[in-house]
Amino acid sequence: MTCQITVLENETIFEFPYIYYPGYKVTMNGEEIQNFESENGFLAISLPEISNAQICIEYVGTKAMFIAKIISVIGVIFMIMYLLFTKENDKMKIDKK
Fold this sequence. Notes:
The protein has one helix at about 65-95; strands spanning about 1-5, 10-20, 25-30, 30-35, 35, 40-45, 50-60. With about 100 residues, the chain is an alpha+beta fold.
């Protein structure tokens, strides 16, 4: 989501219509800014007085999610290799008989 905003008061809390989860990346004019969970459980940011700013929100996930994906891919590769190896081994046993 991208939006243009004007903030008239210092330390304004801006709440977005997204339920808060770790992994959101919020940028203002190209610079990443800190986000947090509001009292209502939504994604929120605190902004200084700004005449014009472009806010961009994207969900990029967390480092733990990235590590879990890598481990899953490695696990699937090892499982496929194991299945292929055991199948080839079974063929060799049958051919010997």
